[in-house]
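Please decode residue identities from the backbone states below.
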């Protein structure tokens, strides 16, 4: 029998996970439960046959794997709410919540559940997430299930929990950072003559191709840059101007600022 999955908090990330789980075929709508206070915002999932409800206890009681996709400040209240139905020999708790540590979750569940911390990004909706995981007291079956689940939804690496905040910045916030880079390309593209629609396709596909070059060639970005920059050409002229204006520096400072925000407990 297929394991049942409950997603508590069908917001941006929770809904993206649900979409990815369905489109990958990892689960079927009948085995998926998604909660949200205002369920009318989950009509799309409901139409696909997913169990959409506002009752977190009911969803948790129906599931084997419970994915917590709520805001950090809600974790304590919601675990308290579902506690009465949690069973140590049945449930695995998977938290995608930023800045909440395994030790916090162990304490909130009185140590009775296997716990997974996972940090995916919103590309999980199209099975292209980068997900970092770390696991606590899981059985081999549970570890395999969770690894298979996230592997179906993109790439997965298991990391030391002390790197989870860093994984949040690079892997999860990283989606937004990449979007701004692409948006700037679109704005520049319009200045030099394209309409916004065509500029958007060119910018997004170019960034996707650049990322795939690195993933498939296992090269360093500078090796790929060397193949593009014709001596005295337009690429190096543009690239150096971007660096004079602080491109790399501003990205590094953005990353370290995001990191500080998490470490200082948001
Ligand atoms: N959005 C992202 O790209 C990522 C988010 N995260 C983490 O995932 C968590 C969720 O983030 P988002 O989806 O962006 O936030 P969100 O605000 O879009 O989603 C949270 C959802 O929980 C629902 N909710 C609130 N109280 C509830 C309750 N009592 N019962 C059931 N549902 C309830 C809200 O209605 C909302 O839909 C956060 O902890 C965030 O740090 C982690 C990685 C990436
Ligand atoms: O901005 C945030 O706090 C969350 C964590 C990673 C993505 N969104």
């Amino acid at each position: 029998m297929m394991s049942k999955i409950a997603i508590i908090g069908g917001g941006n990330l929770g809904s993206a996970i649900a979409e990815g789980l369905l489109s990958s075929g990892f689960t079927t709508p009948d085995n998926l439960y998604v909660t949200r206070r205002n369920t009318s915002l989950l009509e799309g999932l409901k139409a696909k046959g997913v169990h959409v409800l506002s009752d977190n206890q009911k969803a948790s009681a129906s599931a084997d794997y419970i994915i917590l996709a709520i805001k950090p400040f809600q974790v304590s209240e919601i675990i308290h709410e579902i506690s009465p139905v949690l069973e140590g020999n049945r449930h695995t708790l998977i938290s995608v919540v930023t800045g909440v540590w395994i030790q916090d979750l162990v304490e909130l569940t009185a140590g009775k559940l296997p716990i997974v911390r996972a940090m995916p990004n919103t590309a999980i909706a199209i099975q292209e997430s980068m997900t970092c995981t770390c696991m606590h007291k899981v059985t081999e079956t549970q570890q395999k299930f969770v690894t298979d689940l996230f592997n179906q939804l993109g790439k997965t690496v298991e990391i030391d929990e002390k790197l989870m905040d860093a994984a949040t910045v690079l892997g999860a916030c990283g989606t937004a950072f990449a979007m701004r880079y692409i948006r700037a390309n679109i704005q520049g593209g319009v200045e030099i003559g394209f309409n916004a629609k065509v500029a958007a396709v060119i910018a997004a596909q170019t960034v996707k191709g650049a990322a795939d070059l690195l993933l498939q060639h296992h090269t360093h970005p500078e090796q790929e840059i060397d193949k593009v920059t014709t001596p005295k050409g337009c690429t190096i002229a543009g690239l150096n101007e971007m660096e004079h204006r602080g491109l790399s520096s501003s990205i590094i400072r953005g990353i370290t600022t995001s990191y500080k925000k998490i470490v200082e407990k948001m």
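Observation: The mean pLDDT is 97.
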